[in-house]
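Pilot study result, target chain (191 residues):
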Amino acid sequence: MIKKDRYCKQCKINPLEVTCRVCDVKIKSPDYFNIQQKLEHIEKHLVSDEHSQNEQVFELYSFYARARGFDMEKDAHKDNMRFFISALKAKTLLNELSVMKCVSVLINIVDLTMAHYKEFYTARIPNFMCFSCNFRTLKDIDELKLHSETVQHVRSSVRVTLCLFCSKCDVFFRVVNIEEHAGHTAAEVDV
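Predicted structure:
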C-alpha cells in the first residue's frame, strides 16, 4: 500500500493512474488490475532506481529555486540554469547520478533543450558554491568567506541558511562551518 508521506510528493495520484512529474511518465495499470494491484504497480515505479535518481535532481532544483526565490517552472533564467547545471556537475562527483539523467529531468521541468544545456555547460567544476546567490568559485575557501560577507549574500541567505556547498564533500553547510572545508577542491574527488 502506498503511504502518503513515504514516496514522491511530486506525483498526482488517482485510483487508476499516476502521472509522475519527475519522470514525465504516466503509469497506468491494466484495467483488469484490482485497486491493490494498481497501487502496487504505481509503488513499483515510485521505488525504482530511475525515479529515485530523478527525484534527487528534482528536489535539488526545488531547493535551489527556494534558495534563489524564484518559481522553478516559470523563471528559467539563463544565469540560474548556468549555475544549476554547474551545481549538478558538482553533485554528480560523489554519487551515482549521471549528468545526462539530470539534464533529462531539467528538460521535463523547464523545457531545457540540449542546445541550451550545451550553452550553459561549463567545463570546470567549482570548489564551492552559494545556492542563494549563484556564486561559485574555482578558488579556495577565502573567496567563499569574502562572498559570505557581502550584502548580497547576507540578504539572500535569509531564505535558506544552509546554502553554501562544498563539491569535495558533496554537502551543504552554513557560514559558521566554512573553516571545516578549508583546503577542499573538487579536483581531489576520486571519480
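One observation from the pilot: Residues 57 and 80 are 15 Å apart (CA to CA). A full batch analysis is planned for the follow-on phase.
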